[in-house]
Design a protein that fits this description.
Largest sheet: 11 strands, mixed
Number of strands: 19
Oligomer: single chain
Structural class: alpha/beta
Length: 449
């Protein structure tokens, strides 16, 4: 660690937290210790937090007191997890229709931090949290950032869409003293922007590369094409998107360092993250109670895919109790060799919006289709599948060296074997543009379900 990075971690960061009265640093230190508690100890702490949150919501939140009463769930007497699971699953539609009513008593909505989700399915959500909740989330993210090998105070390189850059002198000074972040804007990735990013990297010397999974993969491809081989961060943190196995391998080959995969969402923040052992994602039981539910509402077992339903244990201002995030994950029955007591999740299969639909109503994970085609056919650099209706598809292709038109016939045969007699329109593009957030979507389902 350089002397400046030492000062950032041990002098500037504590001074800043003291000056702003932020609990982030003290809470982070607590989290560093508690992560190695036993599974039973962590589970007991989680369930105590769940009890406090649910009891509070039942008494101090108009939306939930009515919701609990209708479900026959009472916080006025002892209750079990089986009782808790009678509470209906919370949907995005309900949040959009009840945002104001979901604010708890004693919280002034005008004094809360307000942000909107990205709305990748076309409809955003209004989310409210306290500054304390935000700082607790930041502290937890810091703990998981360190699992990559990065250390507090060290500069970060981010591959991100629409980055928030420091503009005022005060913001630039803060950025320098607490930890610089350089950006490659995913809304404009080309030879020139990557070359400029590399020059900035050489000046700042970041130790962590952070960004959307597919965006980091694209950066790696540009670096290989430009024959740039000297960028060697301590760690790489992939987030916000599915990390495909072949993309992980490519990134690790280019940077010569393991990728740490992380999963979260804007509504409840960090959900799961790999540690240095890379044996699955540790669930963030410090802040969340996570359920995996099959379509019939029963719990998914180890190795079974289930809809992720999450209760946020630290957002009292706008509680999220049994919230369906519209992602599908696979819980694990394994234990990680790192010694941490957190349960594991094998993987995130994808967003429900990215599952394509067969004529019989069954669903197919778009990410699985991509994995079974993009890596199989030579000359395919990028691919995106859009389902307009049950029998109408568009397949967007970015082709490269070795591509042959015969590939389209093979892709059509594969998709017809999967979905039946369908109409497929192939479109060859120079690039598949990201969404306004800077993320990429491999599959898009426009079928109303």
């Amino acid at each position: 660690m350089s002397f400046m990075n030492f000062l950032r971690k041990n002098v500037f960061d504590p001074l800043y937290c003291h000056y702003t009265r932020s609990p982030r640093r003290s809470y982070w230190r607590e989290l560093e210790k508690s992560q190695f508690l036993t599974e039973k100890e962590l589970q007991d702490r989680q369930q105590e937090k769940l009890k406090r949150l649910v009891e509070f919501a039942g008494k101090e939140n108009a939306f939930y007191s009515q919701r609990f009463e209708k479900a026959g769930f009472s916080t006025g007497r002892p209750w079990t997890l089986d009782d808790f699971k009678r509470i209906p699953v919370l949907t995005k539609k309900e949040i959009r229709e009840n945002s104001a009513r979901m604010i708890s008593n004693g919280y002034d909505i005008d004094r809360l931090m307000h942000f909107k989700t990205g709305g990748s399915t076309g409809k955003s959500l209004d989310i409210y949290i306290t500054e304390e909740c935000s700082e607790l989330r930041n502290a937890c993210a810091r703990r998981h950032d360190r699992w990559t090998g990065w250390e507090v105070g060290e500069p970060i390189a981010a591959v991100w869409g629409n980055p928030q850059l420091p503009t005022t002198l005060k913001e630039r000074i803060k950025d320098t003293l607490l930890g610089p972040v350089i950006y490659l804007d995913t809304m404009c990735v080309n030879n020139a922007s990557v070359t400029a990013f590399v020059r900035e990297w050489e000046a700042v010397k970041p130790t962590l590369l952070f960004g959307h999974a597919h965006s980091i993969f694209l950066l790696a491809r540009y670096l290989r094409q430009l024959k740039i081989e000297h960028l060697r961060p301590k760690g790489i943190l992939s987030t916000s998107m599915m990390l495909l196995p072949h993309e992980r391998q490519y990134i690790e080959d280019v940077f010569q360092v393991k990728v740490t995969d992380r999963y979260g969402c804007e509504e409840v923040s960090l959900i799961g993250c790999e540690c240095e052992e890379h044996q699955g994602m540790h669930l963030n039981t410090d802040h969340l109670f996570v359920e995996f539910l099959k379509e019939d509402g029963t719990a998914a077992g180890g190795g079974e895919a289930g809809n992720l339903v999450i209760t946020d244990l630290i957002n009292y201002a706008m509680p999220f109790v049994r919230y369906r995030v519209e992602d599908v994950g696979v819980p694990s029955g394994r234990k990680c060799s790192c010694g941490r007591g957190f349960p594991l999740m094998e993987q995130v299969v994808g967003r429900t919006a990215d599952f394509l639909v067969k004529p019989d109503g069954s669903r197919v994970a778009g990410i699985s289709l991509i994995e079974n085609t993009l890596t199989k056919y030579k000359g395919l650099d990028q691919m995106q599948i859009v389902q307009h209706s049950i029998d109408s598809f568009t397949v967007n292709l970015v082709t490269g060296h070795g591509y042959e038109p015969e590939v389209q016939k093979q892709l059509a045969e594969f998709l017809c074997n999967t979905f039946g007699n369908i109409n497929i329109r192939f479109v060859e593009l120079e690039t598949i543009p990201p969404e306004s957030s800077g993320k990429y979507r491999f599959s898009i389902c426009e079928v109303r379900r």
